[in-house]
Design brief:
single chain; about 180 residues; mainly alpha; about 5% strand
């Protein structure tokens, strides 16, 4: 049998445990209620502004524009030369033998096919170079946005493009540009 003194101590200990458990649950509920009552923080960014004003993006887009321009100039020149060859052929074919005209026409068609393949290859090469240069920068942008959101308690950060209306006080674009510059 348990003595009355031990029974009283055990009862008091059990009562204290239950009370402390109740306070812990109440405290957790209060914290959850406070969190639920806190306003949801939302922000947005303007990617076009970031692309236009971030030195890193400006440099990459400048490089890509130069690469595209050089490729386009070369392709335009080759395309123009091919078009001139077709025009010359159309003027001269009446004065050529049937076999010579057929050979020349086949050669021009082969040249046009090579030009189209070259154009497609240039496009693929440009896209690969674009991805190679932009992907690391886009990943850095994602990390910067996530860091700002976490540091400032934003639950969501949207792209301005997808918002019908957004008060400028929720625009964190300039903060993102500043962080990208560091």
């Amino acid at each position: 049998m348990i003595s009355s003194h031990k029974k009283a101590v055990l009862t008091a200990t059990l009562l204290l445990f239950i009370l402390s458990l109740g306070f812990s649950v109440a405290s957790a509920q209060q914290r959850n209620a406070a969190a639920a009552a806190a306003p949801l923080k939302i922000a947005f960014i303007d990617l076009n502004e970031i692309f236009d004003n971030s030195p890193k993006f400006k440099a990459v887009f400048g490089d890509l524009k130069k690469l595209y321009s050089e490729s386009k100039t070369s392709l335009d020149q080759t395309g123009k030369e091919l078009q001139e060859k077709f025009s010359e052929f159309n003027l001269q074919k009446e004065f050529m033998s049937e076999d010579a005209a057929k050979q020349r026409r086949n050669q021009l068609l082969k040249d046009r096919e090579q030009f189209m393949q070259m154009t497609q290859a240039e496009e693929v090469e440009f896209k690969e170079e674009q991805n190679k240069k932009l992907q690391p920068l886009l990943e850095e942008l994602q990390k910067v946005v996530e860091k700002i959101a976490k540091d400032e308690g934003y639950a969501f950060v949207f792209r301005r493009k997808y918002i019908v209306f957004g008060d400028e006080k929720f625009n964190i674009t300039k903060k993102v540009i500043d962080q990208l510059g560091k």
